Amino acid sequence: MRRHFKDNNNRFAEAVWGRRWKEVFVQDKTLLQRPQAVYAPESASEMVAMQRIADHVLLRIQRRLQPRAFHRLREAVERLGSTLPGTI
C-alpha cells in the first residue's frame, strides 16, 4: 500500500508543506504500534454513500488544482445542495 501511494504522497507533501512525506510524517514507533482503525461499512447503502463522498471530495480537490471560471459557482451550488436530505 505504501509503495503504491509513495509518489503521490511525496508530491502532495511537497506541494503542501514543501517537504517530503517522510519528513512530515516521521516513523514514530508508538504511532505505528497503535491499533488501526479500519472502515467497514455495515450495509451496501452506507458503502455507496461513502464512495459518493470520496468522489465528491476528490472532484473538489481536482477543481482547486485546475481552476476554471465556473468552478466557484458550481461549488457554491453544491454547498447549498448538500444541505438537502439524501445528498452529499
Alpha-carbon Rg, integer? 17 Å
Which oligomerization state do the chains in this entry correspond to?
single chain
**Largest beta-sheet details:** none
Helix content: 55-70%
Describe it.
With 88 residues, the protein is mainly α. It is 65% helix and 0% strand. The radius of gyration is 17 Å and the shape is flat. The two termini are 28 Å apart.
Throw out a few tags for this protein.
mainly alpha; 5 helices; flat
Topology:
Elements: H1 2-17, H2 21-24, H3 29-32, H4 44-65, H5 71-81
How would you briefly describe this protein structure?
The chain has five helices and no strands. It is an all-alpha fold and 88 residues long.
